[in-house]
Amino acid sequence: MTALDNLAKTLSRLPGVGPKSARRIAFSLIKTQPEFNRLLAENIATIQEKIRPCSICGSFSEGDPCPVCSDSTRDRSQLCIVEQAQDVITIQSSGAYGGLFHVLGGAINPLDGVGPENLSFDKLMKRIDEGAFREVIIATNPTEEGDTTALYIRHLLKSHPEISLTRLASGLPIGGDLEYADETTLKRSLHGRVSF
Amino acid sequence: MTALDNLAKTLSRLPGVGPKSARRIAFSLIKTQPEFNRLLAENIATIQEKIRPCSICGSFSEGDPCPVCSDSTRDRSQLCIVEQAQDVITIQSSGAYGGLFHVLGGAINPLDGVGPENLSFDKLMKRIDEGAFREVIIATNPTEEGDTTALYIRHLLKSHPEISLTRLASGLPIGGDLEYADETTLKRSLHGRVSF
Fold first, then answer.
1. Which of B2, B21, B23, B44 to substitute to test the interface with A, most A CBs within 10 Å?
2. Are A84 and B27 an interchain contact pair (Cβ–Cβ within 8 Å)?
């Protein structure tokens, strides 16, 4: 195996990078400015020293606690539960939410051997028991695993009837087309129809 | 800008990696085994020391001359001219060609300021003058730039009437569907129809 095959094979283990794009990237790295390769290699080699999970919410951050958890202007009565750390960034960039987050680290998935004990539910319940949350927003993915996880959270929160529990709305994506909507999305969208 | 944004921005400069996939890859690099990051960084940092252009054909190789140029079992009467070094690998992996290659380093593109003087035509003509080629196969891309480059090669090879000059067939891709073929491909495919 040549150094080129080696690099392409390593690159193809990145998410969303197939064998063909890995080869294309490898070729570009042969032809690029050497400084770019040094910069990229350095960034990759040091990322795990620089970014760590926040000890409170579990999102990735350079500082601990993360900027969201330590921001005193955020609404501490709202808690948004997400599967992954990147979901925090996605919701943050929507600009539509001003509360706190909790990262579960995945979703319940018995087929992959991920049970509630593998996710940060203990930490979640500790935060809820000790905090003053008035609303918990479930923002798990609209998938089977995300649905199962949402049901599990609803079960856990039975001990806190004072907290209102919500979940992100499902339905047709904005800019989407009825013709291309899948059956399940359409069903959910009908089921959750709102007065207009 | 955080280390995460920094890494994502650097990754998004790779070909075929948009801002969203760059972010996704960056997150995966935070969560992956540290050894993987070390391996990837090392591969990227050293690729340009390990892989260099072959001094004969211009394709990328760990040795010089490259394995194709130094393989005495290959047919030295055939020369296949390609735009990029990666095209050599693509044609090699088809297993349908056993001759030699010549990499131009691009295609003639006046709009981008790429003229014949920027491509390895001098080297090409030296190889053809000194070699014993009976056939030259033009394998430039079926694009406007590739077509211009092919015409230029035909012009150059007028001084070698003993060499038969061919070009890769254009037409419908295998497994393709007439309905989805673009007009130009269909025209070429009709124009180049073969008896059956």
1. B44
2. yes
ipTM of this complex prediction, to 2 decimal places: 0.74
Q: How many CA atoms lie within 13 A of B51 on its CB side?
A: 28
Alpha-carbon distance of A54 to A26, in angstroms, equals 34
Q: Which amino acid is at A185?
A: T
Q: Residue A56: which region, alpha, beta or left (left: phi > 0; alpha: psi -120 to 50)?
A: alpha
Residue with the two structure tokens 């050293």 = B46
Q: With H, G, I as helix, E, B as strand and everything else as coil, classify residue A166.
A: strand
For A77, the enclosing helix (H) or strand (E) is: strand A75-82
Rg (C-alpha) for chain A, rounded Å, is: 21
3-state SS, B9-76, equals: HHHCCCCCCCHHHHHHHHHHHHHCCHHHHHHHHHHHHHHHHHCEECCCCCCEECCCCCCCCCCCCCEE
- What is the token pair recorded at B21? 């996939």
From chain B, pick out residues whose CB is under 8 angstroms from the CB of A91.
Answer: none
Q: Which residue has the tokens 């960084």?
A: B41
Q: B-chain residues within 8 Å CB-CB of A89?
A: 23
Contact A69, A54 (CB under 8 A): yes
A6 backbone dihedrals φ, ψ, rounded to 5°: -60, -50
A-chain residue closest to B6, CA distance? A43
All residues of chain B having their beta carbon less than 8 Å from the beta carbon of residue A30 are 47-48, 51, 60, 85
For B129-166, give the DSSP string. HHS--SEEEE---SSHHHHHHHHHHHHHGGG-TTSEEE
Cα A122 to Cα A114: distance, rounded to the nearest angstrom:
15
User: Over the stretch B12-70, which tens digit does the pLDDT of each residue have?
Assistant: 999 999 999 999 999 999 999 999 999 999 999 999 999 999 999 999 999 999 999 99
Contact A116, A108 (CB under 8 A): yes
User: CA of B75: how far to CAs of A28, B72, B131, in Å?
Assistant: 30, 8, 12
B161-184 pLDDT per residue, tens: 999 999 888 887 877 777 777 888
A45 with B38: Cβ contact below 8 A: yes
Q: Sign of dihedral through CA atoms A101, A133, A128, A112?
A: negative
Mean pLDDT, residues A12-21: 94
Tell me which H or E stretch contains B102. strand B99-103
Q: Which one, of A45, A161, A76, A86, lies nearest residue B36 by Cα?
A: A45
